[in-house]
Design a protein that fits this description.
The chain is mostly beta strands. The chain has two domains: about 1-70 and about 100-245, 2-Layer Sandwich (Alpha-Beta Plaits), CATH 3.30.70; about 70-100, no CATH class. The chain is built from three helices and 14 strands. The protein has helices at about 30-45, 125-130, 185, and strands at about 1-15, 25, 50-60, 60-70, 85, 95-115, 145-160, 165, 170-175, 190-205, 210-220, 230, 235-240, 245. It is globular. The model has no long low-confidence stretch (mean pLDDT about 90).
Length: about 250
């Protein structure tokens, strides 16, 4: 199959865990939904284009920084309690509390992302958007600029490996569905995450909708594990021998 390999760099980035608030923690690699959202924004897609993604990369260190936090509690504005006042189209006022919180930032992030749209006709569209974006690309927060170092179309194929282990130059997400052998091998060397990929909108009341996310269960496997990964069965590689785990 054909796909796109995107190699990129970020000076600072935060891929926020949805359950972190006071300390805005970061995933070690961007989740699938974040990457898919960046691609759709770059291409100007207004509807979801089905695609599979493989994500790997590494970062040098972590730092903490301050950020301005806004809380929207849905309460009416009260002088002395709220710092900001908002008004909806019906003239009802709401109070907003402004404070300071902490954000976890990854430093000197290197990413290798494989993108395989379900319809190969989208490959030249995505390639053009990543090579010559209409505006700057960001991944994570809006201010987390994405510097594209290389983007190319690659051939991805399945191969049967005769070795017990294969090399991984980067940390990588390994979806549980792609693991044929004993999953306990991965539990001992990696961290389990349930990562967002795509969502559907459900109406819970008139005019109010919520997102219901499709999750990808995956292990984050660090390359520090002697740069080896258990792969006793069939795995995928691109034409430059980089391992690929699509989800």
């Amino acid at each position: 199959m054909k796909g796109i390999r995107l190699e990129a760099y970020q000076n600072l980035a935060n891929y926020r865990k949805p359950t972190s608030f006071q300390l805005k923690e970061s995933y070690p690699l961007p989740p699938y939904s974040t990457v898919i959202g960046m691609i759709h924004a770059a291409c100007g897609f207004t509807e979801y284009v089905p695609m599979q993604i493989s994500i790997q990369g590494k970062y040098h260190s972590k730092v903490n920084d301050l950020w301005t936090r806004y809380e929207f509690a849905g309460n009416s504005f009260e002088e002395g309690r709220h710092q900001l006042r908002m008004e909806d189209i019906n003239g009802k006022t709401y109070g907003v509390t402004r404070g300071v919180s902490t954000v976890e930032l990854l430093v000197d992030v290197e990413l290798v992302i494989h993108i395989v749209p379900e319809d190969e006709n989208y490959i030249p569209v995505i390639l053009q958007a990543l090579q010559s974006p209409a505006e700057y690309l960001s991944l994570g927060r809006r201010e987390d600029l994405l510097q594209v170092t290389k983007v190319k179309v690659v051939e991805i194929q399945k191969e049967r490996t005769k070795k017990d282990m294969v090399g991984i130059p980067y940390d990588i997400y390994v979806p549980m569905d792609s693991i044929i052998e004993d999953k306990r091998l991965y539990q001992s060397i990696g961290t389990y995450y349930s990562l967002n990929k795509t969502y559907e909108l459900f109406e819970i009341a008139k005019g109010k909708t919520i997102r219901q996310w499709k999750k990808i269960k995956a292990f984050h496997i660090p390359a520090t594990n002697n740069n080896r990964l258990f792969a006793r069965h069939i795995v995928q590689f691109d034409e430059d021998d980089l391992i690929v785990f699509l989800a």
